[in-house]
Amino acid sequence: MTSALLPTYARAPIAFERGEGAWLVARGGERYLDFGAGIAVNALGHAHPHLVAALTEQAGKLWHTSNLFEIPEGERLGRRLVDATFADVAFFANSGAEANEAAIKMARKYHAADGHPERFRIVTFEGAFHGRTLATIAAGGQAKYIEGFGPKVEGFDQVPTGDFAALEAAITPETAALMIEPIQGEGGLRVIPHADLRRLREICDARGLLLIMDEVQTGVGRTGKLFAHEWSGIVPDIMSAAKGIGGGFPLGVCLATREAARGMTAGTHGTTFGGNPLAMAVGNAVLDVVLADGFLEHVRRTGLLLKQKLAALKDRHPQVIEEIRGEGLMLGLKLRVPNTDFAAAARAEHLLVIPAGDNVVRLLPPLIVTEADVAAAVERLDAAAASRESALRGAAE
Ligand code: PMP
Predict the structure, then answer these.
(1) Which fold would CATH assign to domain 50-290?
(2) Which residues line ligand 1 (CB under 6 A)?
(3) How large is the angle between the packed helices 295-316 and 277-290, nearest 10 degrees?
(4) What is the 8-class DSSP label of residue 210?
(5) Which 3 state secondary structure label does DSSP give 81?
(6) Which residues are annotated as a binding site?
(7) Interior CA angle at 19 toward 76 and 309, to 5°?
(8) Structural domain boundaries of the chain?
(9) Is the pLDDT score of 37 beyond 90?
(10) Parallel, antiparallel, or unpaired: how do β-strands 360-363 and 354-356 relate?
């Protein structure tokens, strides 16, 4: 039967019924190792008992109240995020794009509140991805997401990553902020060097700009720090997070210093479901796990192990794998064969990986992944690479 859903996703014909840790179980009982989990769902693994308990308990008490009343779980999650980061205040939304919308509006309002509404332009970086709303596709700058959707939202200027001359030239008296992902996820696991992030901070300070860090994909432990920008030693003025903080539940957050948020007063912004008690209970449960002693150390250790094994895999399959990229448990293989073919070959081995730009496949396992899961994943990648190699040989004959 044809699907009743809008065909905006190229869906593989597998339906999952259950998940346990790093594994998904399909209809029919087949088990898949989920190294795509970090893209959105279940950063802490499927059906994590602490998250299930928190959600179930909250579901039996209260699902929703309007943001016109206090939401104690949200006050608590906001306080914990603020205490763990550079930020003074938090705004809860329901997705990454929505958190970025808040960040963009906040940066513009910051200057407007100072009597400079003409300072609304935001400089972003080639290869960026900030979401699929009208403003965030303009921020991301990729034609394939913009074309056909009417006038592009004004006020975004894009420069090549790492080109500081182009960046300086793009900054005008109308510029409000720079917006960047510390590691480009959709763009192909491109790590922004820590020295470059430090230079961006200096430029923002010198030019009176706000620095917006999009940590929607990198945040909440994925790279072995709570947030990836921490590796560089700098702090942003505004930061968005989603994916990981919800552990698979729809939850986004925009965090900011009190100064950067000075324009956001009562009535300036809002969203009905932002900060709802169910999402807040899950977010708090996620932090219980991620902030527990030894958890980030586990991410760093297993990330390093996976990276070492991938380096050996690259040496075994130089015709297929060109480069290993990423940090922590946010790793990618830059390929010499089409990434969608490689992802399909991995899926045939019952390993899920996610294609990204620049002909990369992403490995974003749940952060609770074990050394045995890592070994199993690399065996399957080995088989997938071997199958692509024999396809190459077949084509050459
Ligand atoms: N920013 C980044 C860096 C992302 O990776 C994504 C999602 N891939 C988004 C924003 C958008 O998040 P969402 O799909 O939750 O709107």
Answers:
(1) Aspartate Aminotransferase; domain 2 (3.40.640)
(2) 95-97, 100, 129-131, 181, 185-186, 214, 216-217, 242
(3) 80
(4) E
(5) helix
(6) 96-97, 129, 132, 214-217, 271-272
(7) 95
(8) 16-39+296-396, 50-290
(9) no
(10) antiparallel
What whole-number distance in Å separates Cα of residue 53 and Cα of residue 285?
Answer: 9
Distance of alpha carbon 148 from its chain centroid, rounded? Answer: 26
Give me the pLDDT at residue 40, please: 63
Q: What is the side-by-side strand order in the sheet with 31-34?
A: 16-20, 23-26, 31-34, 351-352
d(CA 302, CA 392): 32
Is-contact 353 315, C-beta < 8 A? no
Tell how far the Cα of 136 is from the centroid of ligand 1, in angstroms. Answer: 9
Of all atoms in ligand 1, which is nearest to the CA of residue 136?
10
Q: What backbone phi and psi angles, to 5 degrees, belong to 175?
A: -75, 135
Decide: helix, strand or coil at residue 184. Answer: strand
pTM of the entire predicted model: 0.97
- One of 3.30.2020.10, 2.60.40.1180, 3.90.1150.10, 3.90.1150.30 is the CATH number of 16-39+296-396, namely 3.90.1150.10
> Measured between alpha carbons, how far is 254 from 96 in angstroms, rounded to an integer?
9
Residue 19: its H or E element: strand 16-20
Complex ipTM value: 0.99
Tell me the pLDDT tens digit for each residue of 173-183: 999 999 999 99
Q: For CA atoms 188, 340, 132, 247, give the dihedral sign.
A: negative
Which tokens hold the place of 213? 């860090």
Q: Is 393 exposed, middle or buried (0-12, 13-18, 19+ CB in 10 A)?
A: exposed
Distance 40 CA to ligand 1 centre (A): 8
CB 156 within 8 A of CB 122: yes
Amino acid, res. 10: A
